[in-house]
Each structure stands twice: as structure tokens, then as C-alpha cells.
């Protein structure tokens, strides 16, 4: 599992590669909303969860996939893009992990992701 205490911030840019990487992990009916990549690692937001991908080793062939279901989120915060600052941010608080922060550059469906998280929290 990803060490979220030492790696609590993911700086991400839209990239469809990780959507293909996690395709075999999706359950029937689960849909990918957006896929992002940092230097080596990535994150995929589906309609049910966040899948964090941690690339390991020198060759990058070993990968760790961590599933973070929206239903386990206790609180979250969204910062939308502004006129000059086009980056968006999402802070997600999990009951067992603490805070995981995602920083996005470029276009991000942050409002759609926010809506899905809210639906999961309120449907408990």
C-alpha cells in the first residue's frame, strides 16, 4: 500500500494511460471519470472510488494499486481554478488514513468528482 503519511500530496496532470492500467481492476458497471499521472505514479477517479497507482522499482514494472472507496471518506475540501491560477485541489479525509491531497494542473472535472464523493457520503 502507498505510504500516505510520507506521500500525502499527489501532483497530477490529466493522462489516459492510467485508465488503461487499472481497467482489469474495475468491477462490472464501474466507469472511469478521469485519469491522472504525476512523475511516475498516478490516480484514477471512477464513479465509485479513487485508485492510486504507485510505480515501484527501477524499471517501473512493479506497481501497487490502492483502492480508496468514496464511501470511506469522512470529509473533503475542493479548491476550484481561478482566473490566473488554473490549478485545482482536492483534500480527502479518510477515517483510517487521514488526509490525502490531490493537486491537479489543467482541466479537471473537479465538480463532478466532488458530486460523486458527496453522493457516497450522504448515501450511507
UniProtKB/TrEMBL annotation:
Q: What InterPro entries has UniProt attached to this entry?
A: PHb, PHb_sf
User: What is the name of this protein?
Assistant: PH domain-containing protein
Q: Which domain of life is it from?
A: Bacteria
**What residues does the Bacterial Pleckstrin homology domain cover?**
14-120
What's the source species for this entry?
Answer: Consotaella salsifontis
Amino acid at each position: 500500500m502507498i505510504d500516505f503519511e510520507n506521500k500525502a500530496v499527489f501532483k497530477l496532470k490529466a493522462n489516459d494511460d492510467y485508465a488503461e492500467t487499472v481497467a482489469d481492476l474495475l468491477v462490472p458497471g464501474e466507469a472511469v471519470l478521469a485519469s491522472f499521472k504525476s512523475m511516475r505514479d498516478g490516480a484514477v477517479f471512477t464513479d465509485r472510488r479513487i485508485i492510486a497507482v504507485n510505480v515501484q522499482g527501477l524499471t517501473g514494472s512493479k506497481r501497487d494499486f490502492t483502492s480508496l472507496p468514496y464511501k470511506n471518506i469522512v470529509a473533503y475540501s475542493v479548491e476550484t481554478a481561478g482566473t490566473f491560477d488554473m490549478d485545482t485541489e482536492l483534500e480527502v479525509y479518510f477515517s483510517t488514513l487521514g488526509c490525502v491531497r490531490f493537486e491537479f494542473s489543467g482541466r479537471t472535472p473537479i465538480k463532478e468528482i466532488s458530486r460523486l464523493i458527496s453522493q457516497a457520503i450522504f448515501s450511507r
